[in-house]
Automatic annotation (TrEMBL):
Biased composition (Basic residues): 61-71
InterPro entries: DUF1289
Pfam families per UniProt: DUF1289
Protein name (Swiss-Prot/TrEMBL): Fe-S protein
Range of residues in the leader sequence: none
Ranges where the record places region Disordered: 55-77
Membrane spanning residue stretches: none
Length: 77
């Protein structure tokens, strides 16, 4: 089975004003249906995420576990 790309950063909370997840920028429906979407559908959503994240009203205040692990790997720890 092929790995499925996911924008999830383990910060799962929905901005009530925009309807987008604070962490990844997807809607509830997109999150729920992610595994059943075609690769083309997922790529389309992924392309929209940076612009969506600009619209959420608040950002996570702490470093996520995934970001910390990525940073530590990059630093060679």
């Amino acid at each position: 089975m092929a790995d499925i790309k996911s924008p999830c950063i383990l910060v799962c909370a929905i901005d009530m004003k925009s309807g987008y997840c604070f962490g990844c920028g997807r809607t509830r429906d997109e999150i729920a249906g992610w595994l059943t979407m075609s690769p083309r559908e997922r790529d389309t959503v992924m392309a929209e995420l940076p612009a969506r994240l600009e619209t959420v009203e608040r950002r996570p205040r702490r470093e996520t576990r995934r970001a910390r692990l990525t940073r530590q790997r990059a630093e060679g720890q």
